[in-house]
Please model this.
Amino acid sequence: MALPAFLERIAALPAFTRLTAVLPERSGAVCATGLPGSSDALLVAALAERDPNRLVVVLTDHVAEAERWLSDLTSILGDAGVVLYPPREGFGEVEPHAEVAGERVETLSRLASGRVRVLVTTPRAAMERTRLPAALASARMEILRGDVRRIDELAAHLDRVGYERVMLVEDVAQYAVRGGIVDIYGFGMTSPVRLEFEGDDVVEIRAFDLLTQRSSGHVERVVVLPVESVQADDADADAGGERTVLPALWPPAALVVHAAGTHVRPELARTWDEAAHHAELARRRGEDVVTRDLLFESPAMAADRLRAFPGLYLERDGEAEGSDVPDGIDRVPFPLRPPEAIERDMKRLGSLVRDGLTTTILCDNPGQDRKSTRLNSSHPDISRMPSSA
Model:
């Protein structure tokens, strides 16, 4: 769902014009203040719309806040170019949760192919050293209808890159072989796919439904991404085991947005200390331990790397003390006020509209839509967007 009216309104503000005039292109930083609620996401979305060829990176301390940013930005821009790169949930080499591993794999794949407009991540994720980009380069597989492939070699590849062989595909990172049929559900696929072979020829590729297992539409091509756990094994043997950090994959002109309340240096230091603590606990248990320096970039190096990109710091009113905003940079105030507390009080909303406040109502369900329709009929300054919008 795209909300162009919101973007047009924030882009029409004089403060937006002033911000874009001082926004750094290659280095330096600027600060925007006075952005309550989700107006910070609106501002970032408007900047992404203004320069669609420039990668925008949003940094926030915590995954929960990163997910809020992802939700807001996809509501405004749609989900085609907005992605989340979460940190590993543990402090080891391998991500133990398939959902997190899959999101990391899919995001890096889209980033490498230039299909990301806004990337949301955390300081911890930015300082992690990973072999995943090298694994993607060596283990990513593209299959086209008409290709010649041996089923046993395809199965061996799927085993090698971390897929689970099952009797029936029911979840992501699984595959099944039944005679001349190979079902695969990989990260980044909108639905699982069924490959039909005649000998070594891929004669058909179809999407299929997980619940009914019935084939549906034809597919010309499918890309199979590796599961992240492959990175410590065969995938990097061909790539030399090279580890890299996420910011090394960004173009130099990427705009790094420091969300309000984000404290990069303390978060980097905390992660560094926790990694040492977890490594020590693992040693005491007699486990093989990958050294902290291989899994994470040092806080000083990570901070310097992030600071090298042009930056936009967001600061809420009253947040200056303890803020991450560098001293001496331009501050651009936005004349926005926090939204009124309605608490489902339609009479209160009606009184605000009568006072001249133009209001947009976003509806989650048909019941809310009907109520807002009745209010809208008596107040033309209210616009509504139903759940189907």
